[in-house]
């Protein structure tokens, strides 16, 4: 099996959708020798900020000299990004080889009419790859929820981290923050350190505290209230924390919270990691499509803010960095809370250009999204393609591209190519 064949096979599993439950993935991993039980794992769940928290965690562990695996979803540019070691995506050849091996185990499983899903399959590939590549530590991002997520087959994590909880995937996870927190807290294991952020609501924190206590876990709540913000700009932040100056490579006050959540987790799971290593890891953190600066002139920012918490953080960043009268390119999934999400950016843009997300069938059409965006901006254009949207926007000096992470993955290469060419 070559790389293209492996991707075709993995994507063919998408037709089975996403089905919560651990029976299939548990059986598959057992046939592979239960590699997940031979890894040191920090498990991260949450609605907003879990990807950034994972980035901070993996960077700190790498700075501490640990060979570090990172499992994230979705990817932004190439599929291989989902499985990384020391910041490098799994090579094409390794992905093909491990896909073939896991497929063989899948083919040997009894046909019970409930096939392995894509997410279950790639999770198994990741565990086997990290184990056989002898990773010292693994940072594992939950796909959806936590309790019934395929990543939750691990039984002895080094730490369980709960990032910011908000209303999302309500049809699956619940209609209140308490119900969603219960699902996220499914990753908490008996006696395992639990780390969460004070940015969570009282409703969510009550659930987290209760479940941590029931399972005999030490609970650590990170809090930025005692942190002095020294500087903030579009390239990151500088803060004073416990007498130490920390430079945080991802911009926005919400990233300060994510960074502190990661630091608290490191101190609970790996107390030997030094302050110097923590500083280095935070400073070097970079994450595609998280308020990513694609170009300085014109200023082009790409952000995968796809729900009200995300757009609220983006709105706050634009306000604090005094970015006004920008043009937006925006695309959303139809099953997201789009109306509430865009309302938080009312008045932020002089013009909005809506697009259909080309890589996902759940997308809103450009015309549907145009109708929603008219409530926050007088000038809204529906573009027929990404290329046309970029052409419409390129004459402006400030361009903000936001919405679905699928949009970010689709349009990022086009933005890089267009604006790098323009600046050369």
Key traits:
UDP-N-acetylmuramoyl-L-alanine:D-glutamate ligase, 424 residues, single chain, eight-stranded mixed β-sheet, 18% strand, Protein-Tyrosine Phosphatase, Chain A, alpha/beta, six-stranded mixed β-sheet
Provide structural commentary.
- There is one protein chain.
- By secondary structure, the protein is of the alpha/beta class.
- The model has no long low-confidence stretch (mean pLDDT 92).
- The chain has 15 helices and 17 strands.
- Strand 7 (194-197), helix 8 and strand 8 form a beta-alpha-beta unit.
- The two termini are 40 Å apart.
Mean of the pLDDT scores?
92
Protein structure class: alpha/beta
The profile of the biggest β sheet is: 8 strands, mixed
The level 1 CATH classification of the largest domain is Alpha Beta
- Bin the strand percentage: 15-25%
Radius of gyration: 21 Å
* CATH homologous superfamily title of the largest domain: Mur-like, catalytic domain
Uncertain spans: none
N→C terminal distance: 40 Å
């Amino acid at each position: 099996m070559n790389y293209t064949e492996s991707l075709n096979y993995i994507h063919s599993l998408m037709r089975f959708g996403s089905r919560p439950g651990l029976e299939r993935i548990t059986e598959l991993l057992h046939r592979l020798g239960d590699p997940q039980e031979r890894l040191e794992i920090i498990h991260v769940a949450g609605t907003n900020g879990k990807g950034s928290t994972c980035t901070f965690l993996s960077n700190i562990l790498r700075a501490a000299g640990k060979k570090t695996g990172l499992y994230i979803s979705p990817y932004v540019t190439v599929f291989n990004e989902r499985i990384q070691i020391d910041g490098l995506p799994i090579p094409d050849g390794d992905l093909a080889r491990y896909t073939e091996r896991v497929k063989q185990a899948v083919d040997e499983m009894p046909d019970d009419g409930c096939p392995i899903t894509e997410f279950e399959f790639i999770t198994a590939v990741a565990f086997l790859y990290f184990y056989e590549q002898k990773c010292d530590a693994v940072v594992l991002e939950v796909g959806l929820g936590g309790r019934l997520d395929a990543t939750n087959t691990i039984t002895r994590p080094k730490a369980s981290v709960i990032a910011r909880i908000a209303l999302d995937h309500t049809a699956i996870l619940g209609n209140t923050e308490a119900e969603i927190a219960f699902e996220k807290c499914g990753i908490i294991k008996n006696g395992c350190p639990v780390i969460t952020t004070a940015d969570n609501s009282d409703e969510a924190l009550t659930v987290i505290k209760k479940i941590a206590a029931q399972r005999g876990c030490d609970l650590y709540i990170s809090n930025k209230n005692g942190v002095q913000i020294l500087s903030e700009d579009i390239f990151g932040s500088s803060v004073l924390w416990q007498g130490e100056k920390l430079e945080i490579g991802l911009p926005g006050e919400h990233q300060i919270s994510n960074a502190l959540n990661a630091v608290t987790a490191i101190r609970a799971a790996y107390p030997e990691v030094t302050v110097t290593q923590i500083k280095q890891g935070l400073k070097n953190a970079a994450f595609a499509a998280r308020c990513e600066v694609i170009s300085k002139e014109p200023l082009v920012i790409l952000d995968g803010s796809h729900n009200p918490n995300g757009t609220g953080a983006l709105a706050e960043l634009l306000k604090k960095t005094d970015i006004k009268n920008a043009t937006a390119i925006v695309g959303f999934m139809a099953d997201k809370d789009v109306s509430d999400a865009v309302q938080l950016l009312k008045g932020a843009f002089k013009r909005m250009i809506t697009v259909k997300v080309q890589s996902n069938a759940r997308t809103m059409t450009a015309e549907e999204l145009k109708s929603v965006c008219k409530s926050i901006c007088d000038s809204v254009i529906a573009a027929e393609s990404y290329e046309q949207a970029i052409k419409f926007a390129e004459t402006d000096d400030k361009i903000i591209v936001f919405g679905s992470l699928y949009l970010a993955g689709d349009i990022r290469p086009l933005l890089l190519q267009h604006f790098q060419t323009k600046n050369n």
